[in-house]
């Protein structure tokens, strides 16, 4: 299972509470995806996306270093600052799959599908982003590294 400690090793620049025992049951990329105890990886930075993700169950998020953090984000909410969220997502999945044993044998559910929801809500994502997400989802399925949504 993805943990705060796991992510802190990959992305040491953080803000918010530091708690190595935090476990992420979900990793999700669409802010309206129901994701209890989730790690949100924003692929777009629209005004309300992070707020919607928090309402959908996010307990932490990745955030692009050069994008201002919205004022509504609680001070204690864990943020991992990255150069590129899509690249960071790839790094998380690759590292996750390389580990022979996760700490407690529980699996994180990876919710990488944005196609159906982005059309309904008039969100537009770059085709290249969608292709990377499909490849990552396929790799997770092929290597048995977690459940998908």
How would you characterize the overall build of this protein?
The protein has 149 residues and is an alpha/beta fold. Helices cover 34% and strands 19% of the residues. The protein has helices at 4-10, 49-55, 85-98, 115-120, 127-143; strands spanning 2-3, 14-15, 23-24, 26-28, 38-40, 58-64, 79-82, 109-111, 147-148. Strand 5, helix 2 and strand 6 form a beta-alpha-beta unit. The longest helix has 17 residues, at 127-143. The two termini are 15 Å apart. 33% of the residues are buried.
Give the distance, in angstroms, between the N- and C-terminal Cα atoms.
15 Å
Strand content: 15-25%
- The outline comes out as globular
Number of strands: 9
- What would you report as the Rg, rounded to the nearest angstrom? 14 Å
* Order of H and E elements: EHEEEEHEEHEHHE
Mean pLDDT: 85
Low-confidence stretches: 116-122
Q: Main sheet?
A: 7 strands, mixed
Q: Structural class, from helix and strand content?
A: alpha/beta
Percent range of helical residues: 25-40%
Strand order of the largest sheet: 2-7-6-5-4-8-9
Query: How many H/I helical runs?
Result: 5
What are the defining features of this structure?
5 helices, 34% helix, 19% strand, two-stranded antiparallel sheet, 149 residues, single chain, seven-stranded mixed beta sheet, alpha/beta
Write the layout of secondary structure elements.
Elements: E1 2-3, H1 4-10, E2 14-15, E3 23-24, E4 26-28, E5 38-40, H2 49-55, E6 58-64, E7 79-82, H3 85-98, E8 109-111, H4 115-120, H5 127-143, E9 147-148
Parallel strand pairs: 4-5, 4-8, 5-6, 6-7, 8-9
Antiparallel strand pairs: 1-3, 2-7
